[in-house]
Amino acid sequence: MIAAISEDPMSFKGKVVVIRGEGPKGGPGMPEMLTPTSAIMGAGLGKECALLTDGRFSGGSHRYVVRHIFPEAQVSSFSFF
């Protein structure tokens, strides 16, 4: 995704980027999603491209970002603590 945005940022205009497998069970340690967010914002697509992920964001992320979406929430035995 990072390389694709660098090569042709306008191809992401009006698109939704979905990054899966980075949540509490899928990704080791629930990694920070700063790199894809920075790529989208750096390409000037902050108002043009949405990002959905089960990964983690800092409090500074803004615009079209839906974060911490994870399928583990529906599992009754899953614990956040």
From TrEMBL:
A single MF term (Gene Ontology): catalytic activity
Gene3D superfamilies: IlvD/EDD C-terminal domain-like
Residues in Dihydroxy-acid/6-phosphogluconate dehydratase C-terminal domain copies: 3-75
SUPFAM superfamilies, per database record: LeuD/IlvD-like
Transmembrane segments: none
Pfam families associated with the record: ILV_EDD_C
Signal peptide range in chain numbering: none
Superkingdom: Eukaryota
Descriptive protein name: Dihydroxy-acid/6-phosphogluconate dehydratase C-terminal domain-containing protein
Species: Lactuca sativa
Taxonomic placement: Eukaryota, Viridiplantae, Streptophyta, Embryophyta, Tracheophyta
